[in-house]
Design a protein that fits this description.
563 residues, 8-stranded mixed beta sheet, 18 helices, Nucleotidyltransferase, domain 5, alpha/beta
Length: 563
């Protein structure tokens, strides 16, 4: 049951008389600390909420939480006190937490895991006032999940004479004897997740989650205890179009006043642009702890210097230190910003009857198949695409993408069979050829035998050499020749495939691989869980894009020589 320390006194006013809240607001608003635009908008949002809603800050509870600092090897900074006061101690009418979810998005070195451990301790303490209020820390791997747990465990071990009066603990869980509350850790591979009855679920390093389903399984027990909460702590990372990107998009919509916050408190710290990486005074925008840690600042200086000297060798510095994702550690096909630009819509109905080429790619019919139709319209490459996924693929357990969502959106067909029949792809080619003027179909040289008959039924003859309606067999040399053209299409934002998370995912799963004579070809970042077939189908289509008449735009693509 909730604390009954005093009768709630709800207030609606513009003046917030809680120093733990106002100190950070004033730090940001007066420029005492560098802050990104998202942080300044958060301050505006918080003031607006207090000015328009009936809220109550439980000062007694807050004071007790602040008193727990004496057990930890650090004093809370103004930004941390701000979050404790808002997330754990601010309530709306009915006694419900005003903010039930906290997203802590900060640069590496902030101390987010130690701070998360402090929050966990507060929630399992008597000051919380709710019995059996379990806090479960979760991550994609057990070592990561254990980090936050171990922070508290080590503190208990160092002061065992004090904590043994009210707690039991071991290497797996901490138990408050008085409240019955427990602090435990879980990993993405943990069993019995559905039996969790958490008061709070803490997701550490959200950037590593590839889909929402793997997070939702941990939150199934929320709501069985009063004041259910979610804590999400993270830097940025390499996974795109996953839960973190969804959270960031939602957070910025909240901060811009485009949607209600629905209990989400987004604390976003990052540079406002890569140009600020050259300005040390701006670095605390991403990691406020730099203002109070000369040692951490020196480490930042070293890493940034190394990154400037050799960006390819230290590609994650902007992503991890400044929360400015620049792409994967491998040599990326193109930047994430370019992939987002390619996701703009176009009028597909206007393509009816226009000339195009088709590209098809698959490694195995028991895995994934990708197909695209490539058009040129007023100097822009426009892409219609589809993919098929074999439900019985041996890689099914490795693929974390939201395949069912993509199927519902019409981007993907999930095939519950031993393989993806070539006839399924052939029918798509036939349907495409009826709607558009398909000049040529390109497939991987080594995969033709799987598709020859299906393509023949669709009207495309693999025995023809260089003529219309033929099947072009793409060779590695074709891919190397066309890679600069694809690179230019992304860089100039002259390619569009609609709002397609599937194409973004598949392209982001590919990497550039050095080839002879200073050329590049394409490879997979990871061989099993990250499929590239839809992107490689696009590559095959580009290899024969010279078949599309040059009636719109200056780009000239040389045709390959007949075999």
């Amino acid at each position: 049951m909730a604390s009954k320390s005093k009768r709630p006194r709800y207030s609606t006013h513009k003046r917030i008389a809680v120093p733990e809240v106002t100190d950070w607001l004033r730090d940001v608003e007066c420029g005492r600390v560098p802050a990104c635009e998202d942080m300044r908008m958060l301050c505006t949002h918080v003031r607006r909420v207090f000015a328009t809603e009936r809220l109550w800050v439980d000062r007694e509870r807050l004071a007790r939480y602040m008193g727990y600092q004496r057990h930890f090897p650090f004093d809370l900074s103004n930004d941390e006190k701000f979050l404790v006061a808002l997330w754990l101690c601010t309530f709306r009418e009915g006694g419900f937490p005003r903010w039930r979810d906290l997203l802590l998005y900060v640069g590496r070195g902030y101390g987010k895991t130690g701070f998360g451990a402090f929050l966990a301790f507060c929630m399992i303490s008597p000051a919380n006032g709710i019995e059996d209020y379990d806090v479960d820390v979760c991550a994609t791997t057990e070592p990561q999940a254990r980090i936050g747990y171990n922070d508290l465990w080590r503190m208990f071990e160092k002061r065992s004479d004090y904590f043994s009066q009210g707690f039991d603990w071991n290497k797996v869980e901490l138990h408050n004897i008085q409240t019955g509350s427990r602090f435990k850790y879980w990993s993405g591979n943990s069993d019995s997740k559905d039996g969790m009855q958490s008061g709070c679920v803490w997701f550490d390093e959200v950037h590593a989650y590839e889909d929402n389903a793997s997070m939702e399984v941990f939150t199934g027990g929320l709501g069985k205890k009063d004041h259910p909460r979610r804590l999400m702590t993270t830097t940025d990372g390499e996974v795109r179009d996953g839960p973190l990107d969804d959270l960031l998009e939602r957070s910025r919509a909240i901060l811009h006043g485009e949607r209600p916050d629905m209990g989400l408190l987004p604390f976003l710290c990052h540079l406002d642009g890569i140009q600020e990486a050259d300005d040390e005074s701006a670095w605390p925008k991403a990691c406020p702890r730099l203002l109070r840690s000369p040692t951490l600042m020196e480490e930042y200086r070293t890493e940034v210097s190394e990154w400037r000297d050799n960006p390819q060798k230290h590609p994650m510095v902007p992503t991890k230190r400044f929360n400015l994702p620049q792409g994967r550690t491998d040599v990326q096909v193109t930047s994430w910003d370019n992939l987002v630009a390619a996701s703009r819509d176009f009028d597909a109905s206007a393509l009816a009857g226009r000339p195009c080429v088709i590209g098809i790619d698959y490694a195995r019919t028991t895995d994934m198949v990708g197909a695209v139709a490539l058009f040129r319209v007023d100097g822009e490459w426009q892409v219609i695409h589809h993919a098929w996924w074999c439900l019985r693929s041996r890689d099914a357990g490795e693929v974390k993408a939201p395949l069912r969502e993509w199927e519902a959106a019409g981007e993907l067909t999930i095939v519950d069979d031993v393989e993806i029949s070539p006839g399924l792809v052939g029918r798509w080619v036939s349907e495409t050829a009826r709607a558009y003027d398909v000049r040529m179909v390109a497939v991987d040289y080594y995969r033709l035998t799987l598709m020859r008959d299906a393509l023949a039924e669709a009207g495309f003859d693999s025995s023809l050499k260089g003529d219309e309606k033929c099947v072009w067999l793409t060779r590695p040399s074709d891919v190397m020749r066309i890679q600069p053209v694809i690179d230019s299409a992304f860089a100039t934002h002259s390619i569009a495939w609609g709002d397609s998370p599937l194409m973004r995912w598949a392209t982001n799963n590919a990497k550039l691989v050095p080839a002879p004579h200073d050329n590049w070809t394409y490879g997979k970042i990871e061989p099993h869980g990250r499929k590239t077939d839809p992107f490689m189908a696009l590559v095959h289509a580009f290899c024969v894009s010279g078949q599309i008449p040059e009636d719109a735009g200056p780009m000239v693509v040389p045709m390959p020589m007949p075999l």
